[in-house]
Amino acid sequence: MAEIVVMPKAGNSVESCIILEWSKQEGDSVKTGDILCEAETDKATVSVESTAEGVLLKQLYQVDDDVPVMLPLVIVGAEGEDISSLLAEVQAGSGVETPLKDVAAPQETAASESAVAVPVPAQSGGTGGFASPRARNLAAAKGINLALLAGSGPDGRIIEPDVFSAMEGQAPLTPAALEELIRSGKTAPVKGTGLGGRVLKSDLSESAPVSVATPVATTAAVNFPGVVEEKKVKGVRKLTASRMLESLQETAQLTLNSSADATRLLALRKRLKESPEEMGLQKITINDLVMLVAVRTLKDFPEMNAHFLGDKIKQFASVHLGCAVDTPRGLMVPVIRFADTLSLKGLGDEAKRLFGKCLEGQIDPEDLSGGTFTVTNLGSMGIESFTPVLNKPEVGILGLCTIQPKPVMKGEDVSFVPHIGLSLTLDHQAIDGAPGGRFLKTLVSNLENIDLLLAL
User: Fold this and answer.
1) What is the CATH number for 325?
2) Does residue 235 surpass a pLDDT of 90?
3) How many domains are contained in the chain?
4) Together in a domain, 294 and 410
5) How far apart are CA 286 and CA 229, in angstroms?
6) pLDDT tens across 133-152, in order?
7) Which residue has the higher pLDDT, 317 or 66?
8) 313 and 397 belong to one structural domain
9) Could you tell me if residue 430 is inside a domain?
10) How is the beta sheet containing 16-22 ordered, strand by strand?
């Protein structure tokens, strides 16, 4: 008997995955545990395994389709098995928010609506009539309020085409968002912050929906010479674009720039590099050293190790340090849990472990959330100063810049001393400039005296 294989959950916060490549094609033999496809969440790449054995009879999605988790992905059964009834069930009752591959939307007729109808309470703009079971199922799956629809069926009955008409222009909901919408009665926006504009659970609001204008392409009529390559914005790139814009729109960002004498920092790094191999300290980097100093400094400034939540600020006793890393798929920020409890070596080892997972595309989605403060490093690229963008709802992010000679007056003489640039962005809604300045000043002092800080 044919079985449906669903898109599995790839972490508690993952609501959908984009199919990157099919490993098995229709007609291929499949065993339990075989890789069906490679899929991309908004945080990592995952391999989707088959939970059934037989022949892959139907792929329900194509490459680049966005598939909600726990919804049908493929159908596996015996070769030549009739799966028409199973396809009809998938299309009519699965709540799939994007068109299934090669499965046409069923056409309603008045005769097909002769099933038992369900009353719909009359509200302003509604018909006060009835809705067919198929219309109710579709409306529930899409988060459509039947009470606001006008029916085109017999005696004003709401039928499936009426719901399809109401869906035009509305972004699809993830299963988690749909469940919350039905449970709480909240309102879904026209467009969400998820992949492809999908409405996430966090997008639901108690207030009326706010229309989001779609940017109008201004280059359509322009004839550009030469070859032009278009790339679809998806996955990590799409998530980063959405999060960065949201961060700048919803926070009052202020960046403070300073620099610290890096003489002792460089000397310590040199000693670590030359230390006995059995100590395992040779791979400690400047980035590791600065992260340690940042963590130690945050313990004295709890207001910087916090989340701003609009009507309240959460300050955390432990430091969960986000560390931005550049990957082939885009920017990722894995989180070092309880960084304040780790030694320099422990901090460096954990950072390298997480960085490696990100670069391999195998990072656990749960390792990319829950940070309380973030460090991002562009120093290796020769950047002297920049404006880091806050990782909401965190109230602070520290940018590390390149180390370069800086003229320093010593009596009447001028000497050039290596300095590391520091760029601190804070949310002015939660932190004023003066407290942020004091944190940065203390951080500078701790970096300049890192040998003494390690003795504490």
Assistant:
1) 3.30.559.10
2) no
3) 3
4) yes
5) 38
6) 777 777 776 667 777 777 77
7) 317
8) yes
9) yes
10) 45-49, 35-40, 16-22, 66-68
CB count, 10 Å around CB of 339?
A: 27
Domain of 35 in residue numbering reads as 3-93
Q: Which DSSP symbol is given to 274? A: T
Residues 66, 145, single domain; the answer is no
Instruction: Say how far apart CA 379 and CA 404 lie, in whole Å.
Output: 10
What is the rounded CA–CA span in Å between residue 163 and residue 143? 10
Share of the chain above pLDDT 70, in %: 78
pLDDT above 50: residue 119? no
Question: Is pTM beyond 0.85 here?
Answer: no
Instruction: Please tell me whether residues 414 and 334 are part of one structural domain.
Output: yes
- Under 8 Å between Cβ of 423 and 399: yes
DSSP-based three-state secondary structure for 150: coil
Please give the single-letter amino acid code of residue 452: L
Query: Tell me, what amino acid is at 334?
Result: P
Say whether both 60 and 131 belong to one domain: no
Side chain identity, residue 115:
A
| Three-class SS state of 266 | helix
Higher pLDDT pick, 352 / 47: 352
Query: Of the candidates 67, 70, 30, which has an alpha carbon nearest to the alpha carbon of residue 50?
Result: 30
Q: How many CB atoms lie within 10 A of CB 283?
A: 12
